[in-house]
Amino acid sequence: MFINNNFRKIFAISSIFIPQQRSNIALDIGSSSIKLLELEVKGKERLLKQLSFSALTPGVDLPGALKEFAAAQKISGRSVNTSISGQSVIMRYLNLPRMNLHELKSTMQFEAGQYIPLPLDEVVFDCAIVRDNAEDNKMLVVLAAVKKTVIQERISLLEKAGLTAKVIDIDCFCLSNVFNHSYQWASEAKTAKSEVIGLLNIGANFTNMVILDGGTLRFSRDIAFGGSEPSLINLSGEISSSIDYFENQSGKRLEKMYLSGGAAEALEIVKFLNHQLGISVARYDFFSPLKYGPGINTEELKAKRNTFVIALGLVLR
């Protein structure tokens, strides 16, 4: 059963590798496809052991399709990391007086209601300190809440497929997590400490948007437009509004935007957003730090790597 203690695992916002050995399975269940990654971690070495992609047809019996997929990939009975996004996820960034994490969590038990526009008995919520050295003895906090019914629906879906939930994360946090784990970030660490970078994961129906300031998560949002051609004008408008909001609130300028998601494969989208947003927009190779096991089809990964970014953020948990 999904409980608050599990929900707190969501907030590995800027984690680092800790020497250990483990194997994780990530299952990204989207509106048009299922993506699976299995990763083995030994210290700082990461070995991608399994990769699979399955398209979903409109109106498909999702529990049946997922059960068939799990059996075909020989993961039935396993625990998996999965994630959710969309209108059921509420994220708030708050400037609060400085306190420790225990004090923050105790405070939010009484004050979260003023930030979450739903009855607290209908949601699971948690919080984390994003930055503890803001001006005027303040700190930046992220507060996230998800409807309990959505959590239970995801647990039920997995159980019908013969799977259990190890971690239920939020897509935007996965996007931040995978970027901060990449080698390119590490190799540009000195520059990145002062850079403001945007990340977009453009799916079929939803887009996840994240803004990092020196690697610290400062803004996140799910946008109800995907990468289909009729949606692109609306999508670019929503992205522009979000950038304006962030820049007005923070006093900082977004310098570049990196794309992922299935729609990011299309060169036209990169050119379109470059023109519409007026900033540098490019694809990003999130998979460069990984080593591949003998069973990995590297050609398939090369062709579809942008679609596996959320799954990669999940499997790195």
Describe this structure in words.
This protein has helices at residues 4-7, 62-72, 101-111, 148-160, 171-180, 183-187, 189-192, 232-250, 267-277, 298-304, 309-315; strands at 21-29, 33-42, 45-55, 79-84, 89-97, 123-134, 138-147, 164-170, 196-202, 207-213, 216-223, 256-260, 280-283, 291-292. With 317 residues, it is an alpha/beta fold. It folds into three domains: 4-86 and 148-169, Nucleotidyltransferase, domain 5 (2-Layer Sandwich); 89-147, Dna Ligase, domain 1 (2-Layer Sandwich); 178-283, ATPase, nucleotide binding domain (Nucleotidyltransferase, domain 5, 2-Layer Sandwich), CATH 3.30.420. The strands form three sheets. Strands 8-4-1-2-3-14 form a six-stranded mixed sheet, with helices on both faces. The chain is globular. Residues 1-21 have low confidence and may be disordered.
Provide the succession of SSEs: HEEEHEEHEEHEHHHEEEHEHEEHH
By helix and strand content, what is the structural category? Answer: alpha/beta
Poorly predicted runs:
1-21
Termini, distance in Å? 19 Å
CATH-defined architecture of the largest domain: 2-Layer Sandwich
Strand order of the largest sheet: 8-4-1-2-3-14
DSSP strand tally: 14
Count of distinct structural domains:
3
Beta-strand residue fraction = 25-35%
What is the CATH class name of the largest domain?
A: Alpha Beta
Count of helical regions: 11
CATH superfamily of the largest domain: ATPase, nucleotide binding domain
- CATH level 3 topology of the largest domain: Nucleotidyltransferase, domain 5
Shape: globular
Radius of gyration: 19 Å
Quick one: biggest sheet?
A: 6 strands, mixed
Average pLDDT figure: 87
Proportion in helices: 25-40%
